[in-house]
């Protein structure tokens, strides 16, 4: 019986009656130079079937050889997820026939993953922290890529024929599996997104994956079940496959909660199955039934020998771990003294590295934030680029700021100078020099401009004399015009006061 | 018959070095012999005449030029060799004796083939076998049976019947075999030749089409023990492409064969395996075995009896582990990327149905039988009872060997319980065929090395004597094997193979 239903229960209402239980399987493609079991290049975007050896095609007689770097990357991931590292582990064969799998079995880890029993603290936007328990992180190989030609919308059913590209076959993967996550309640969708974001950030920070979700470097299968509020026993789960953006993870979990609630409310049962995520409709549809009795006839891979991880090796790898992203954020926020919202905006804009480098190069935290969250962000938005891709260096910011502090240029000119820098005209100092952009604070030149302005506007002068100091602003226009905008406004004000004896 | 083909590999190599004969002459003599008898025997699936002669000519030219390059030639350079058609070769078809791979050309060479090319041994061609090496009679080839040169109505053993028959019939002095449960040793026994299954991992498996990965091992086939030692030293050694290959080279194999050839085994403890004799072993086989023991004793060996109580479970464990691995290893033969593709004759053309039609048409019955057995043994709910239990038996057998090797330096048994059986005798009784490997299988399960040497005749047919040694101690096999070879030949006054009858090519209709 299909449990397909168009019915959804309002999210808040659903969670008044049910507790959600989540679970995630996140696949991370490692960015090793070569594949998991062959010396074919591990590269994205090349012509189909060019990054293959006889091993990747599963030709008769070939044997796999484990990529040591992939093992090291897997251990690094395990350590970053606070896992135990197995002293001895091995590979198994997962047997199933499918043309994207050249040997018709996938070489994977089964009952002895390289990393197990870890945890990750996930901080939500408001600072609430959920601890997600990690069941295991294991190594395996990716499959090739099938393209179904003709027929219905790129599906294998009804296709005229299918093309297969084995470039991706054998790319090293680490699959990170959580234990059931209980107690997230209404924050489940938010937690789902934050968890996947945290894993992505960790593997990117480790340098072991390109971590681009849009390229499938990080792929998430999201398991959701509901149980009535007072229940102890988990409900039946569904597994939504290949939810491949952070936003989609959040939406898919939310959708499945709403759908499960509707099915359960109607008295029907949830069928254990995989679900397909559809970004366009933000909904899932039924995939294939999945039960724990799926028979992959796992058995130990006889072509490989066990991997032995010595304590020295693991400790050497541990010493290579960078500071965890969450710890780093906590440290930087305290160091920089930003308000909660300011810091969150900086994190969301993805310019932590840039601000840190700019401060290191010599500006204050406030100045660094002003530039990166202000003018640079505006330029990036205007040119539809990532801030990091604009090419602004910390040195440029330091120089611009020095010029401002030395009163050589004002803020407005500094913004112009930055644009010239990005257009490749040279360093800020050179540009100010070449384009004669330095602020005019030469008293003779300014004095003359002020005299001319006062002569032209006697009524304004009278107002100032009468004590209306804000009227000085009216003189600023003609003075700026006379100096092509380069007048130091503060100095102009002083000169006016001097001349009027105030 | 050209006398060149009667020479052992070592003798031929010496003549080549001395300039008494050329490699081209030697290769041509073997090609002539193949042309003469192979229409009857069907030991070869492919004859590689052109390339073999070209390699031979190259070796001759290097020798003629002399100097450093000639000095650097491998001792076996120019000596022709036949290759079991389970081992992939560039430039020659590789079929595994299956319709599945009809016409398939490998784009790469097996590691052992790279070594053979580097040493410049002309490859005469590819030899017949039971399909994917599954069988003990070479009757299960998709390309016809191979006949035993001693009696054309009998099997040459299997799966490596082609390599053994080729060497026994003087079509080649050397051949490569593969041994998963006895596929080198049992054909050696029933054709009166020498065959060695090295220690698991001593020879790279890269490029040997896998039957059961944890059991498969490539090894030498020859007419003398020394020749096998020479060939194992050439093909052995660590291979970074085979994770299960040993890190170290096994050294001193040729030296051990030369030591053994003196016929003195003083102080060597030879353990007679209680469970591998007596019931189920033909009387003539048992008689030759007992005579060999007597000779060894007279040569100074200390004969002790050892018991390996778990060997009685070996065949059962083997027929669970081997098919399990087979079911997975042969999954890749699906018509998608290489080899035959067969489309279903009716119904929709889906990928599952194309795979099914390809496998239904491409595999023979014995292969299908083992795939089905193995698929069942690995199934959820049965895994522990079958595959799991078999792995436990495997551990027990390894312990039996460990205990036995505390009492003895080498173990000894008949290689096969019977002489060659008649073609078709076991057509309806696969288990009877499986039983022929009862003495060879324990070595594969434990990873230890084994050799078969000719031990005389029973009813006019060869009997093989098997020695087994601890892992890494392949040299002990060569010493004991060469000693027994010397002692027997001294007693007979000639080699066993010289007693083989002439091949009556007229009696069997030659294939077109």
Largest sheet of chain B: 11 strands, mixed
C-alpha termini separation of chain A: 91 Å
Query: From the helix content, strand content and strand pairing of chain B, which structural class follows?
Result: alpha/beta
The overall pLDDT of chain A, averaged over residues, is: 91
**E-strand count of chain B:** 11
Beta-strand content estimate of chain A: 15-25%
Q: How many domains comprise the coordinates of chain A?
A: 3
Number of helices of chain A: 17
CATH architecture type of chain B: Alpha-Beta Complex
In quaternary terms, these chains amount to: heterodimer
Shape of chain A: elongated
- CATH fold-level name of chain B: Amidase signature (AS) enzymes
Q: What topology emerges from the helices and strands here?
A:
The complex is a heterodimer of chains A (502) and B (512).
Chain A: H1 11-17, E1 18-29, H2 68-80, E2 84-85, E3 88-89, E4 92-95, E5 105-108, E6 115-123, E7 129-141, E8 145-149, E9 161-165, E10 172-178, E11 181-182, H3 188-206, E12 218-228, E13 238-243, H4 246-265, E14 273-278, E15 283-289, E16 299-300, E17 307-308, H5 311-319, H6 325-336, H7 340-349, H8 352-361, H9 365-373, H10 375-382, H11 394-405, H12 411-422, H13 428-434, H14 443-456, H15 458-465, H16 472-482, H17 489-499
Parallel strand pairs in A: 13-14
Antiparallel strand pairs in A: 1-10, 1-11, 1-12, 2-6, 3-17, 4-5, 4-16, 6-7, 7-10, 8-9, 12-13, 14-15
Helix pairs in contact in A: 1-4, 3-4, 8-9, 8-11, 9-10, 11-12, 14-16, 14-17, 16-17
Chain B: H1 9-18, H2 23-41, E1 44-47, H3 49-65, H4 67-71, E2 81-84, H5 111-118, E3 123-127, H6 161-168, E4 174-178, H7 185-191, E5 194-197, E6 218-222, H8 225-235, H9 253-260, E7 269-273, H10 283-298, E8 302-306, H11 314-329, H12 351-362, H13 365-377, H14 384-407, E9 410-414, H15 430-434, H16 441-446, E10 450-458, E11 461-468, H17 474-492
Parallel strand pairs in B: 2-3, 2-4, 7-8, 7-9
Antiparallel strand pairs in B: 1-3, 4-6, 5-6, 5-10, 9-11, 10-11
Helix pairs in contact in B: 2-3, 8-9, 8-17, 9-17, 11-13, 11-14
Keywords (chain A): ATP-binding, Ligase, Nucleotide-binding, Protein biosynthesis
EC number (chain A): 6.3.5.-
Subunit structure (chain A): Heterotrimer of A, B and C subunits.
């Amino acid at each position: 019986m299909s449990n397909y239903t168009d019915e959804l229960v309002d999210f808040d209402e659903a969670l008044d009656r049910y507790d959600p239980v989540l679970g995630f399987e996140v696949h991370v493609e490692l960015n090793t130079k070569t594949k998991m079991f062959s010396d074919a290049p591990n590269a994205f975007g090349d012509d189909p079937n060019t990054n293959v050896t006889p091993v990747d095609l599963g030709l008769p007689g070939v044997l796999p050889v484990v990529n040591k770097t992939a093992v090291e990357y897997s251990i690094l991931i395990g350590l970053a997820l606070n896992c135990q590292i197995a002293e001895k582990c091995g590979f198994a064969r997962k047997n199933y026939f499918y043309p994207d799998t050249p040997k018709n079995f996938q070489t994977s880890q089964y009952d002895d993953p390289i990393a197990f029993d870890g945890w990750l603290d996930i901080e939500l936007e408001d600072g609430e922290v959920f601890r997600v328990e990690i069941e295991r992180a294991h190594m395996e190989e990716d499959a090739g890529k099938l393209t179904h030609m003709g027929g219905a919308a790129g599906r294998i059913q009804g296709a005229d024929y299918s093309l297969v590209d084995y470039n991706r076959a054998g790319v090293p993967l680490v699959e990170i599996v959580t234990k059931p996550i209980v107690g997230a309640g209404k924050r489940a969708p938010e937690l789902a997104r934050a968890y996947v974001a945290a894993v992505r950030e960790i593997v990117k920070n480790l340098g072991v994956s390109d971590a681009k979700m849009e390229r499938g470097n990080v792929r998430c299968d999201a398991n959701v079940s509901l149980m009535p509020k007072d229940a102890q026993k988990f409900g039946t789960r569904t597994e939504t496959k290949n939810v491949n953006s952070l936003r989609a993870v959040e939406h898919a979990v939310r959708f499945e909660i709403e759908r499960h609630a509707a099915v359960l409310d109607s008295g029907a049962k949830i069928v254990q199955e995989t679900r397909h995520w559809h970004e366009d409709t933000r909904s899932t549809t039924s995939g294939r039934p999945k039960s724990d009795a799926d028979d992959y006839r796992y058995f130990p891979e006889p072509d490989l020998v066990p991997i032995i991880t010595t304590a020295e090796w693991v400790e050497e790898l541990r010493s290579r771990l960078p500071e965890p992203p969450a710890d780093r954020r906590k440290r930087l926020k305290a160091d920089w003294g930003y308000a909660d919202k300011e810091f969150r905006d900086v994190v969301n804009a993805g310019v932590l590295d840039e601000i840190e480098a700019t401060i290191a190069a010599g500006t204050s935290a406030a100045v660094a934030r002003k530039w990166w969250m202000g003018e640079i962000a505006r330029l990036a938005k205007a040119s539809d680029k990532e801030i990091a891709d604009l090419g602004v260096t910390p040195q440029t910011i330091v120089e611009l700021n020095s010029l401002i502090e030395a009163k050589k240029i004002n803020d407005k000119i500094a913004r112009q100078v930055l644009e010239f820098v990005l257009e490749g005209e040279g360093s800020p100092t050179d540009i100010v020099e070449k384009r004669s952009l330095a602020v005019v604070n030469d008293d003779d030149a300014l004095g003359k401009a002020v005299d001319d302005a006062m002569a032209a506007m006697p009524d304004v002068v009278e107002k100032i004399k009468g004590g209306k100091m804000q009227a000085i602003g009216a003189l600023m226009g003609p003075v700026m015009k006379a100096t092509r905008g380069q007048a130091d406004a503060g100095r102009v004000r002083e000169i006016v006061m001097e001349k009027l004896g105030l | 018959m050209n006398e060149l083909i009667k020479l052992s590999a070592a003798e031929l190599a010496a003549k080549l070095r001395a300039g008494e004969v050329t490699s081209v002459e030697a290769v041509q003599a073997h090609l002539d012999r193949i042309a003469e008898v192979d229409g009857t025997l069907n030991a070869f699936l492919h004859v590689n005449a052109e390339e073999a002669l070209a390699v031979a000519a190259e070796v001759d030219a290097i020798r003629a030029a002399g100097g450093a390059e000639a000095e650097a030639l491998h001792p076996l350079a120019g000596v022709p060799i036949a290759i079991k058609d389970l081992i992939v070769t560039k430039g020659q078809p590789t079929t595994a004796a299956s319709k599945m791979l009809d016409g398939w050309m490998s784009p790469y060479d097996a590691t052992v083939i790279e070594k053979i090319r580097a040493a410049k041994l002309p490859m005469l061609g590819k030899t017949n076998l039971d399909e994917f090496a599954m069988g003990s009679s070479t009757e299960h080839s998709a390309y016809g049976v191979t006949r035993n040169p001693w009696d054309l109505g009998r099997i040459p053993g299997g799966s490596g019947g082609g390599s053994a028959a080729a060497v026994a019939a003087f079509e080649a002095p050397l051949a490569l075999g593969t041994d998963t449960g006895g596929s080198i040793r049992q054909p050696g026994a029933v054709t009166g030749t020498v065959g060695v299954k090295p220690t698991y991992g001593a020879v790279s498996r890269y490029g040997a089409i896998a039957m059961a990965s944890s059991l498969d091992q490539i090894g030498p086939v020859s007419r003398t023990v020394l020749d096998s030692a020479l060939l194992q030293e050439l093909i052995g050694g660590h291979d970074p492409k085979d994770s299960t290959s040993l890190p170290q080279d096994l050294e001193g194999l040729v030296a051990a064969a030369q030591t053994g050839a003196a016929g003195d085994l003083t102080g060597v403890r030879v353990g007679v395996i209680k469970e591998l004799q007596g019931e189920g072993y033909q009387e003539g086989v048992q008689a030759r075995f007992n005579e060999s023991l007597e000779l060894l004793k007279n040569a100074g060996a200390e004969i002790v009896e050892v018991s390996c109580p778990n060997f009685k479970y070996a065949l059962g464990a083997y027929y669970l582990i081997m098919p399990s691995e087979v079911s997975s290893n042969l999954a890749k033969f699906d018509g998608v990327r290489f080899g035959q593709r067969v489309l279903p004759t009716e119904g929709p053309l889906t990928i599952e149905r194309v795979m099914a039609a390809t496998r239904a048409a491409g595999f023979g019955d014995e292969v299908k039988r083992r795939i089905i057995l193995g698929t069942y043994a690995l199934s959820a709910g049965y895994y522990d009872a079958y595959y799991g239990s078999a792995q436990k038996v495997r551990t027990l057998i390894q312990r039996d060997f460990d205990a036995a090797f505390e009492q003895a330096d080498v173990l000894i048994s008949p290689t096969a319980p019977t002489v060659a059986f008649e073609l078709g005798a076991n057509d309806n009784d696969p288990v009877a065929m499986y039983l022929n490997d009862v003495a060879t299988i324990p070595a594969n399960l434990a990873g230890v090395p084994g050799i078969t040497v000719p031990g005389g005749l029973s009813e006019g047919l060869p009997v093989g004597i098997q020695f087994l040694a601890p892992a890494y101690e392949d040299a002990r096999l060569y010493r004991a094997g060469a000693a027994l070879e010397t002692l027997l030949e001294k007693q007979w006054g000639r080699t066993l193979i010289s007693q083989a009858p002439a091949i009556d090519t007229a009696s069997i209709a030659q294939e077109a």
